[in-house]
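Extended Data, panel c. Modelled sequence:
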Amino acid sequence: MEEECLKNIQVQHISPERLQLVRYCKKPQDLEIIYDEVKGEQQGSDTRPVKKDNKKKTPLFTLLHVVAAVLGIICVSLLSVLIALSIYFEAVVSERLRENSNLTAQNLQLWTEKTDLERQYKELARERDGLNWTIGVILEHKNFPVDRHCPQKVCKPCLDDWLQFQTRCYFFSKSDYSEWKNWATSREECRKTNADLVVIDSQEEQEFINNHTIPHYDEKHGYWIGLSREAVKDGWKWVDGSNVTVAYWRTQEPAHREVCALSLPRAAPLANWDKVNCREWNRWICETRALIKRSAPVIPLDNLSTSALDLNIVVIYCPPGPLIQDAAQLLVQALVIISRLDYYNSQPLSISETKLLWFLSCPLLFNQEETTNINSDCLMISPCCRPENKEEPTIYDEVKPKVPPATEPDGEAAAARSVFRVLAVFSVILCVLLLASVGVIVYVSVVMNQQAAILSNLMAENQQLMTERSVLERETEELSRTAGNLDWTLGVIMKHDNFPVSEFCPEKKCQPCRTDWIPFEGKCYLFYNKGPPWLTWKQSRKYCQDRTADLVVIDSLHEHEFVSNHSKSYYDWAHGYWLGLHETVDKNWRWINGHNDTLGYWIVTEKLGSDGPYALLIPGRHPTASWDKAGFMYNRFICESDTLIR
């Protein structure tokens, strides 16, 4: 029984104490119960691993290793591509930054040149208008008294004892009773100075006149003004033919006979016109245009208000890359450009002129702490720019989820879990790199398009500024030439003591030379072809000087040919035309302008007359051999002067 019982039992690692119980097994049933208990206790208490047979098996994770390696290679490749794109993008942005900076600097230079040209153009226009005004005043005379209006060739707006108000000159008579005049003779007295009785057309002028009139004799006497009415049925007219637009009558009583207007000093300033008989004797007021027109004051650029600049926005873009030094330099350039634009502009600029877009690199331009202090007035558009307000960290930020301690796996299961973790990490990195690649490509495209648009706008603005500068240069050159010609004309007028307006400008239309004078290359020539009695050399020169000219000075063969072609033979072969050439004490031949003779077109083959210290042009001779030396004899002559219009 005991052996049979033992045969039916498979003992596995039974302790000696438990084995003793088995030996006393009397019945199979009891033996089975006791064995079950012993087996259960053994299984519950024995925790040692069961030894198994070691057999060679195929590696289970080889494929996972290959996948992890491939993913790692792809990640490294994508990372290399991202680095290459970043380097390329940084190089492209740097090049665009240089182009934008150069174009911006060039545009600023063009803007400065344009502003200078505009200022120069305004100055020339003001000068031209002033010269036109002065010449227009001169042309109102028949003979302009240069010596009175421009003593020592320096012109004054008004004559002595005249007062200037705006663009007019006024003369207030201060004569005694014995020199008072009626209305008609007062007007004649004004016309002697190319003026007329005053015409009042504004309250300012009325107040100016009232302030400069002096009460005299009694309250019924005053100053004649240029307002009259010839008949009862006629209306009031000013001496220039204009109707009355403003009236300052002392009384509205109608006049019943020929009357003229009188300004009464003792009456109210805006009600001092009186209607009196034109034959009464009074003082008078003359009026004429000022010779020099007062121009509006010029405001220098230093006084321009900075509010005139309409600067819309300054955009600082922040692409990735360590361009900190270039960014700081460009930021300084932007501030300089803004300040210079504010200095040079006197009117609001357009959007294309004021929107300066600067692409700067800023990952390191602002520190973490500095970004919190960025003012909202500085508009920063960039992924790297941070908001102004940042919440303070709270205690909840420090709460971290509890992670159960990782148990160190053993064996093949631990290796599998490690491979899976590596695959998961590589997968996440791959997804991040793919998204980053797409983001970088989109980001680069957007930035490049923006830079291309900015560059296009700068180039268009550059072309527009160049066109405007060219137009201004051309207009300024034309205006400068016009002002120069007017200044030349005024200079010619200033050479006269009394400028003969009627001779130079018949019917107020000026011509280069007076009647009977011939223009040639900026000069006017008078060939005195009258009959005898002719004049000596000194008398001929005096004749020319009385006409603000002098004897001719020949500077070139071309001018000598012109003079020879217009000279005519007369009387005999020894007579000719006096030139402005004479012999000095040191036996040198010198022109009257102080220059020595360098042409020497003397007749050397024959002797025409007695020698003398003056040069004579013999007509009909070859131009290079037509001068003869003559003394005190009578001849025709040639006068020369500058043209009035160049």
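Confidence is low (pLDDT under 50) at residues 1-58, 296-401. This feature is highlighted in the accompanying rendering.
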